[in-house]
Amino acid sequence: MSVDMRTTVAGVEFKNPVIAASGTFGFGREYNNFYDVGKLGGISSKGLTLKPRLGNPPVRIAETPSGMLNSVGLQNPGVEAFIETELPFMKSLGTVVIANVAGATESDYVSIVDILSKTDVDMIELNISCPNVKNGGMAFGVSPDSVESITRAVRKACKKPLIVKLTPNVSCIADNARAAERGGADAISLINTVAGMAVDYKTRKPVLAVGGGGLSGACVKPIALRMVHECFKTVGTPIMGLGGIMTGEDAAEFMLCGASAVQVGTANILDPFASLRIVNELTNLAESDNIAKITSIIGGLIVE
Amino acid sequence: MKAEKCDLTLKSIEKFGNVYRVVCESKKKLPHMAAGQFAHIKVPNRELRRPICIYDNTDTTVSFIIASVGAGTEAFTAQKPGAEFDALLPLGNGFPILPDVTNVALLGGGTGCAPLLKIAKDNPSLNCTALLGFPNAAAREVYKDDFDKVCDRVCYCTDDGSFGYHGYPTELLTEIAPDVLYVCGAPGMMKTAQKFCADRGTVGFASTEQRMGCGVGACLVCSVRINRDGKEKLLRACADGPVFALEELVL
Hints:
By secondary structure, chain A is of the alpha/beta class. Chain A has helices spanning 29-32, 79-91, 106-117, 138-141, 144-157, 173-183, 221-234, 248-256, 266-270, 274-288, and strands spanning 7-9, 12-14, 18-20, 42-44, 61-64, 67-70, 96-101, 123-127, 162-165, 187-190, 194-197, 199-200, 205-206, 212-216, 239-242, 261-264. In chain A, strand 15, helix 8 (248-256) and strand 16 form a beta-alpha-beta unit. The longest helix of chain A has 15 residues, at 274-288. With 251 residues, chain B is mainly beta. Chain B has five helices and 16 strands.
């Protein structure tokens, strides 16, 4: 029996629920050398800003138990270069193209979303949760009030389905999900990385040049699952779940907790074929369980 | 030279102090590899792959010189012959070989000598002088007589004078006066080489290293500071390098 792997988020249809997460997949070019990345449900672009950004000084990565820390700091070519050189390529892939955007001020966010609304990106993902830049990013994502106000401001300029990406570095994730919903988000994605740090005892210095970074990988999966579940119970907005997804079964767990689609991040860094493997594993899992439509498992967690 | 994910088996591993000479083999024909390219190797019980430069290769084998300097290289070099793992290879841009140039110097320090061997081996028409620096005589043994076999001249240099020239290999650059200099070593060596090339108008290429994530150019963690077009840029060691023009390196 073949499984119907399609899923829909905010009116956008995905051929399967597996999306490459922002910051781990570039604009799809590199991994397309290994396999046809058009086989994925979607790709979320590297975080884009109005002007090109150099990013943070190296070292930018540290290995941790069952995960990694990064402090790239939104290095990107800027939205104009994205539209000119990367977007046509991404649109040629035959997969849903999500533009992930970040800014230092509210007007940055509004401007970039206004610019991208005039292009043929399929969705916009608002990154208000990057822990690696001093100004903006996570500053907007922590308090529910600021989540709501930035979402509302962007919503007015946004002509595309709007995903708000939430940070886990908050006291109550459901409050922030509600705030995004009130502000007009069409979907939410969570979780971004968990703020963390690695220390080199020998040098007595932080491993990362900027001190701290964002923790990701298998170690954050339990945090992410719980937060997705909390949000699913609280808001009606569709959810993209992410955080430490390494296998098809991990993806299915997020869907049970209420995710309509999932994003795969760190797994791509560990293995270039990871996202494709996860699509195949999720398909096989559903097939062996006689699941006709993958969407039927969304929110199917049994809580007694 | 498209990178592939290759299944490898550890064929032999020899220990020389904290440096290992590792030969891996593949049941299938391996892709073509150029001097200066690297492999991104899966390490047991670690999350991230480890980028290791390709030292030597045949159609079905690839070898590496690996210093055990941290958790990843320690775990990798603790493996025994027969261990199986995969590696993405070949990755990155190797050393450019310029036409109509014959007098070439290979300047390496410690494990930094490893990416240079294939320059001489793959280009027999080059007149290669290897200037190889080590702390002491024992530290050069991992290379056996590999450089002697493929270079026209090899100058071993030791900090303590226990073998070959007593001093830094960079001190011999003026005497060799190469048309092209290929270098891989500690920042001090790179700096001296850069100044030598700048002063004399010599073309130089350097292999860099940085802590790496994906290895294929997507995650942007392995930044190297590069001065290009009058501006400082952060380029990817994995996909824009690891070899850069020596004059571009911000050291």
